[in-house]
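help with this:

***
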Amino acid sequence: MGDSPVVVAYGAEQRVRGPALRAGWLTQTFVHWPFRPEAVQALVPEELVVDEYEGAAWVGLTPFVMADVRPSGIPATLPGLPAFAETNLRTYVRHRNGQDGLWFLSIEVACPLMLAARAVGAPYHPGSLSVRVTDDVITYAGSRWIGDAAYRLVVRPGAPIRPAGRDVWLTSRWRAYTRRLGRVWQTPAEHEPWPLAEAAVEVLDETLTTAAGLPAPVGAPVVHFSEGVRHVRLGISRPCFPLPGAS
């Protein structure tokens, strides 16, 4: 995509009416590494092109807590699922119709019910995951039930920041792409903008990137922390089609 990053919207690009799922994404850390674009492109479908920022493709390890999860049709007066941990390994792509979004290399989840999303091609892996807040640090840990992919991340959140261009580019995406039945599908998302803070990594041991087929990154990680967003609305997944006038 060249050395000039495409501007990414800080706020939601669309309203999600009649969401398939509502949730909160809380206590989230973003750890991003730069990679050679061709190394990441090899891991995504040909319909998608890896987005670049400053000449690099970026892959993010994003552990968080899923809270207040409720499928469509469950009234707000009734409790949702109990909170559980989830961790995504993701990169940033653009469909040939011009729309940007996320491509998940893997999704670790502690709630087996979420495995239903495999029906739309989401790469969920059930495992034992935890998020623990102690004093001024947060410890995330997880391991798959099948295979040996695992991680342990200890971060110390810092002061809030006013998001600049790269901060927004690395954290704000408003659709996710998956592949099923031989074609690419998209799932729209809507929520309030991420409140971001500085963060320092104290411990990082992980094998998720190598399990996904990634080589070593080409630079040091960029880290953000967020207390999270509480009003997430995920839409119904639909197959992608070219936009009018898109090449």
